[in-house]
Design a protein that fits this description.
Elements lengths: L30 H18 L4 H17 L1 H12 L3 H22 L6 E3 L5 E8 L2 E5 L5 H14 L3 E5 L7 H12 L6 E3 L4 H9 L3 E7 L2 H13 L4 E4 L5 E4 L5 H13 L11 E5 L3 H13 L19 H16 L3 E4 L20 E4 L6 H4 L6 E7 L2 H8 L7 E5 L3 H10 L4 E4 L18 E2 L7 H4 L1 E8 L9
Parallel strand pairs: 3-4, 3-6, 4-5, 6-7, 8-9, 8-13, 9-12, 11-12, 13-14
Antiparallel strand pairs: 1-2, 2-16, 7-15, 10-11
The protein binds 1,4-dihydronicotinamide adenine dinucleotide and gamma-amino-butanoic acid.
Length: about 475
Amino acid sequence: ILLTSGLVLYPLNIPNYIACRVIATFLCSGEKEVDLAVQSAKAAFKIWRKKSGMERSRILLEAARIIRERKDEIATVETINNGKSVFEARLDIDTSWQCLEYYAGLAASMGGEHVQLPGGSFGYTRREPLGVCVGIGAWNYPFQIASWKSAPALACGNAMVFKPSPFTPVSTLLLAEIYTEAGVPPGLFNVVQGGAATGQFLCQHRDVAKVSFTGSVPTGKKIMELASKGVKPVTLELGGKSPLIIFSDCDIENAVRGAMMANFLTQGEVCCNGTRVFVQREILDKFTEEVVKQTKKIKIGDPLEEDTRMGPLINRSHLQHVLGFIEQAKNEGAKVLCGGDLCVPEDPKLKDGYYMTPCVLGNCKDGMTCVKEEIFGPVMSILSFDTEAEVLERANDTNFGLAAGVFTRDIQRAHRVVAELQAGVCYINNYNVSPVELPFGGYKMSGFGRENGRVTIEYYSQLKTICVEMGDVESVF
Ligand SMILES: NC(=O)C1=CN([C@@H]2O[C@H](COP(=O)(O)OP(=O)(O)OC[C@H]3O[C@@H](n4cnc5c(N)ncnc54)[C@H](O)[C@@H]3O)[C@@H](O)[C@H]2O)C=CC1
Ligand SMILES: NCCCC(=O)O
């Protein structure tokens, strides 16, 4: 299945169901391979940067069309790659081709401005690409992350070398294959495989102009430090511990659905999840009862089956890490209202899978570890509150600032509350929808820079100012 626009190493034997077994073996790219990938991207950049926006747009639209056409196949590979349900993987593939279409639409209208100066002189600006950009991805949305980074990068005239997480190396190769088929110059979108060392080689490379990273806060700090040595701009999409505030005047059915969306997509392994669910005391019991009822109904199993809604976690150590948080929560006084256990599906082929039952924790308090730290698993913590002022202060009392949500029927309160929330992405009466037209990114330690939306053009381009003299030079000497 693999044919790419640049340098890759080939996986072996992809099976057609999910079990705990090796699905692909890769060699990690070392310094030499990283250099080859960057050099081939650099050569492609020389061709690509000269193309008009319309020409780039046409190729991106063709790539979007191919992704749409191959959606089911890519979603199946993503499910095998990551473990998320195929139902959800298809939604990821949708936001991927939509992202390419969106930036194809912007490519042709990118430009600078003309400014009149005294005496007939004038100036103008050109919006120019940066060069070879690096994308480094996390394992939770492999194909989507690669698309969200490469689409704006390529639309602006850049080349990209992308490194997926070593836990999910496969699906990004399909994106490279599709870009090639759509007509990008060979090497424009290169994939290298590997872990931290490969990532470091990329960030340090002298011919790399920018790094866009999605992953954890500790790695984000290291990448920022490496990039700073070459004064390279970075985009950091990091972790979160986002609040979801449910006021008693909300539509409770929608609020319950919102809380489920905020916590259990992709086995809870989502950076913007609203895992601190603050519920106004008057509706705490009713809300909790309904959330627990819905959580117990989530179908866990083979993620390739159409009705499965929760697959296995990414790997054994992460599963143990998540279960460890639940143990600690119990020790600190939280009450497990449902789930939180290892789960062995009945299907014998799944018996070694990294499954757990989705968990709702009640009686949570602000100081508990489960409320303070990112768990990155299917664990919802419910907290009660009384007043708007109180909940705002508690919601903002975190070093993270990726997302936040509010459910209320009071439109004035909704806008007043989101204006005070310290988060880059806020939802009113919904959660975890990702329209590509809207910017996505964090405040505080959740990172900076944005993906999606018009603004991302600014993160993948630079402005050149040209000052044109129409008269004589008036020298001060
Ligand atoms: N804000 C956002 O959009 C998202 C944030 N995340 C965050 O990512 C974390 C989970 O993802 P992980 O893959 O475990 O994160 P991670 O930080 O361990 O790894 C992310 C990527 O960085 C690479 N890497 C690791 N060390 C590196 C180094 N020293 N230099 C260069 N590259 C290096 C890894 O190989 C991987 O490709 C969670 O904290 C989550 O919140 C995940 C998805 C989206
Ligand atoms: N679809 C939202 C992406 C969030 C994440 O990458 O974790």
